[in-house]
Amino acid sequence: MTKRTPILVIKHGALGDLIQAFGPFAAIRAQHPDARLDLLTTPPFAPLMRRAPWFDRVLEDPRAPAWNFPMTLRLAQSLAREGYARVYDLQTSARSSRLFHLIRLFGARPEWSGIARGCSHPHANPNRDRMHTLDRQRDQLAAAGLAAFPPPDLAWLDADVTRFAPPARFALLVPGASPHRPEKRWPAQHYAALASAIAAQGATPLIVGTAREAPLAATIRGSCPAAFDLTGRTTLFDLAALARRALFAVGNDTGPMHLIAALGRPAVVLFSAASDPALCAPRGPKVRILRDAELRNLAPETVYAALAGLDVVPQPSP
After folding, report:
1. Of the four, 32, 69, 138, 293, which is 20 to 30 A from 206 by CA?
2. Residues 6+ apart with CB under 8 A from 245
3. Which domains are delineated in the chain?
4. Over 70: is that where the pLDDT of 135 sits?
5. Phi–psi pair at 268, nearest 5 degrees
6. Nearest Cα to Cα of residue 9 among 19, 129, 24, 17
7. Is residue 117 classed as helix, strand or coil in its secondary structure?
8. Residues 110 and 41: beta-carbon distance below 8 Å
């Protein structure tokens, strides 16, 4: 049996960052169809990526704290032993670049696409830090010789959601965001007003998110009892399945909205001054971005009008 050339891709998180790498993952697999393709990611995302079609193995990087250098050194040694012919560093952080130098201490000399000093395929575009994530990664891969960028197949992101008994006509609301970034959240009271407007048109608002977002869902349902609370009950596969069936989604700048956009679903994504959509906004064929420096100043009527502009506002049931 012919030995398959081992190639490594490095990409950690957060969730939105990982989802925005799905296109690059597909491009790397297309470039190396016969290689043994490994992904190095963080433990929370390893189960998800083990079901993706692009990788033969998913390795876990616990991202040891700076004081635990021996753990980082052991990771570098284990990667060096794999004998990778090429590494695509899509994380391009100081930490991932450090791995380039550390694995060389153990005799490994793979080709390396990234920003590590001395690597064989540097992404030297001086504007890289001013590029949208998708454009930057594509530019990096082009500099490493990749020419084909097929759309990623996301059929594997699906689930049986009949246990939720979703209504025939529903919309997704994603009111959460990173717990340490409250400034990225549109107020729950605004989501409640939007939910009431959606329900008045005969569609059911489904509130999704982690269990931490249950209080937000409770506030929304306090004003709109017709809304369903699914916080803490869905996997990412469930979310993808619901998104495919939903009329549209409205949410903050958070990972699930990247997934919904990547699936090509209609979505309105809300940004504050805390992040720049020019650099990191979800992209998709039916995505509308709304931004206000202070999200509390973004009126529910403005969001509903954006939905009307996408031609997805539900019509009343006869």
Report:
1. 293
2. 161, 166, 170
3. 6-143 (3.40.50.2000), 162-309 (3.40.50.2000)
4. yes
5. -115, 125
6. 24
7. coil
8. no
Confidence (pTM): 0.93
pLDDT over 70 (residue 185) = yes
pLDDT digits (tens, 9 = 90+) for 307-318: 988 888 765 543
Cβ burial of 151 (10 Å; 0-12, 13-18, 19+) is: exposed
Is 78:103 a contact under the CB 8 Å cutoff? Answer: no
For residue 282, the Cα-to-chain-centroid distance in whole angstroms is 8
How much is the pLDDT for 251? 98
Cα gap 135→215, rounded to integer Å = 37
| Count of positions (residues) in the chain | 318
pLDDT, tens digit, for every residue of 221-266?
Answer: 999 999 999 999 999 999 999 999 999 999 999 999 999 999 999 9
pLDDT above 70 coverage of the chain, percent: 98
33 burial via Cβ count (<10 Å: 0-12, 13-18, 19+): exposed
Spatial CA neighbour of 196 closest among 83, 41, 304: 304
Element (H, E) at 114: strand 111-114
Is residue 52 reached through a cis peptide bond, with omega within 30 degrees of 0 on the bond before it?
no
